[in-house]
Design a protein that fits this description.
Bound molecules: zinc ion
Number of strands: 17
Distance between the termini: 12 Å
Radius of gyration: 23 Å
Largest sheet: 9 strands, mixed
Structural class: alpha/beta
Shape: globular
Length: about 450
């Protein structure tokens, strides 16, 4: 299939005016072998169905390739967007919890809402979340679920990296069992397009929830599995002022709340959350006990001078996810984008859950980020939902760009003829009519076929 659009944004080179993308599928695969000696045909035979075979100017692409032509008209074709942090479990909690006075109060409030939900509610919540994410042009999600046992019952319509969210707040001695149980569910082949395992990794990960809800044991257990199986890790870190108060000063509302419910608090009163995560007080070099490239760290709103020194010292970097609208809901401290960026951290955007957000639109997330960081160019912001999260998921050779050999995960949005295409893309405020995941196009946009 040859897809023509007014502009193709590959994320590799300047946007291609009157461009086209060739996607491998049956029609092209059926052409007699050897009928075209072109590079495109050779690539096509090598490319699995559902991947991009060729991209360039429409006239040139048409000359190099056979197959059905689909014209998207006055639209911009982009790589599908990647949400680096969400919890589709809580899609049904949209608008249910008003901002609370303290972070601890918010945990109480969401726990009260969660107590009312059954596994059936969670299943429909996750399915609705997938559908909404896709309507907003998201083709890959890093989704944390507290219910990995439900995964086999879900058919994900978009590419999904499932993270099992793990909690043992009262420092359970059963960290191994908790992790083993989660892996059993994650290991069963999920239904729907998954991430590539070409790099030797598995298309899933583990998410010890946070330093204040997951024991040291649980973190260590997840790290061990991640090293052995080459899977990804994610957690929430240094999100709120109360988390900083708890770990650094052994005080505050979160400290009191967790102490009351029986969490051992002997890790409090010494280090910052980041210091504790990086093992700053260990005799070894900070961070060297961690599988840092496998970690995707959500939030990092609360960092001290000593934390920045730690980050600067660490040669190996983890990946960072910022969730601008959830951040606004909680009124957290300013996210230190400039400092982290200058320390060469890979920074991505995520929506977090709808318990603290209005929608699963990454376009809205890009705009919220732009409002807080008006100096960052819109093409840099677009990278935070394409190229950067692809890297965080260790899929930088598969998704996040339009390039031969990459997955055919594409979206099309209307584009004007204004001078700043990327500004228009970030400003796009609607649902996406045409979404292709793994080479399968779903569209309500009027198409012209076989030009
Ligand atoms: Zn989260």
């Amino acid at each position: 299939m040859i897809i023509r659009a007014r502009t193709v944004v590959t994320m590799d080179e300047p946007p291609i005016e009157n461009g086209a993308v060739v996607v491998s599928g049956n029609r092209i695969d059926d052409s007699p072998s050897g009928s075209s000696p072109s590079r495109a045909a050779r690539l096509c035979r090598a490319a699995p169905a559902g991947s991009v075979v060729d991209v360039g100017k429409f006239d040139e692409v048409k000359a190099r390739n056979a197959g059905q032509i689909v014209d998207l008209g006055e639209q911009a074709l982009l790589p599908g967007l990647i949400n680096a942090h969400c919890h589709l479990d809580y899609t049904c909690l949209r608008g249910k919890i008003r901002p609370q006075k303290t972070f601890a109060d918010w945990i109480r409030a969401i726990n009260a809402e969660k107590a009312r939900l059954s596994p059936k509610d969670y299943l429909s919540s996750i399915n609705e979340g997938f559908a909404e994410a896709k309507r907003f042009g998201t083709t890959t999600v890093a989704n944390l679920t507290a219910f990995p046992n439900l995964i086999p019952q879900i058919h994900a319509p978009i590419r999904t990296c499932w993270f099992a969210e793990l909690i043992d707040v009262r420092a359970s001695k059963h960290a191994n069992e908790i992790v083993d149980l989660a892996i059993e569910s994650l290991g069963r082949a999920p239904s729907g397009p998954v991430l590539s395992v070409a790099e030797g990794g598995a298309p899933w990960g583990l998410a010890p929830h946070a330093l204040f809800t997951a024991s040291k044991n649980l973190f260590a257990c997840c790290e061990e599995i991640a090293r052995r199986e080459n899977v990804l890790l994610t957690t929430h870190l240094a999100e709120s002022r109360e988390e900083m108060e708890m770990f650094r000063d052994a005080s505050g509302a979160l400290y009191e709340f967790l102490k009351r419910i029986g969490r051992p608090m002997d890790d409090c009163g010494n280090e910052t959350p980041l210091g504790l995560f990086m093992g700053a007080s260990s005799p070894r070099r900070a961070g060297c006990g961690r599988a840092l490239p496998q970690w995707i760290i959500a939030h990092l709103n609360e960092l001290t001078e000593s934390d920045f020194e730690l980050l600067e010292e660490s040669n190996v970097k983890f990946h960072v996810v910022h969730c601008p609208r959830s951040h606004g809901y909680f009124k957290h401290s300013q996210f230190p984008f400039e400092q982290l960026h200058s320390l060469r951290f890979n920074i991505c955007l995520g929506t977090d859950s709808l318990a603290t957000n209005e929608s699963l639109s990454l376009f809205a997330e890009m705009r919220a980020f732009q409002r807080s960081e008006p100096g960052i160019s819109p093409d840099e912001i677009l990278k935070m939902v394409t190229v950067n999260p692809a890297m965080a998921l260790h899929q930088e050779n598969m998704i996040g760009r339009i390039r031969p050999g990459f997955c055919a995960d594409l979206i099309a949005i209307p584009c004007g003829r204004g001078p700043n295409l990327f500004e228009d893309i970030v400003g796009f405020d609607g649902q996406v009519d045409s979404v292709m995941v793994n080479g399968e196009l779903q569209t309500t946009h009027p198409l012209r076929l076989n030009l």
